Fold this protein.
Amino acid sequence: MKSAFTAVAAALLATAGTAQAAPILDTGAGTTSVSSAMSVTNTRSLAGYFSLDKAVTVDGIYGWIGGDEGARLIANIYSEIDFVPANLLYSVDFVNRGTVDWQGADSLKWALGAGSYFVVFSASDDSKSYMPGGASQPLVAYLHGSEGNWRRLREQNLGIRLTGTSGGAVPEPAAWAMLIGGFGLAGGAIRTRRKRPAALA
């Protein structure tokens, strides 16, 4: 009977939904103007500063990016020390689709604790990519340059978005209710079976 109870519990846990990924950081989209854009190359990275007041699990990382179709880009998260990117924590490659839009990668499981960080976009080849300015809810600060040689980027307001869940993936209230109800039904079945009289030989 224990095995039946275990099977029911496992099935309920497997079907219990997790909290949906939501914006952790979202500046809003920028413009589509190339004239106000900053280039992303294999010698110039663009970075945006952000801070977290609690732990999160990042599911997706995106930049408001345009440029050559097929250009190979990298989205990174760095720790922050003295208001510059310090240590590389996470990195993912993606390919420029060639139109100005939210571009990046999803299906990530990047755990970040409370603290300060930089999102950094860089290129792994010499194709042309760029990030237009004009985001409606800009970050506190943006930088451009490369490791060890960062400079403040003023009045550019690059578009950056992170999605994920606070404190990691947790069951939603409806899933908890289903899980508890399932345990109750399984427990009731066990009690009923124990009370049943033994069959006569």
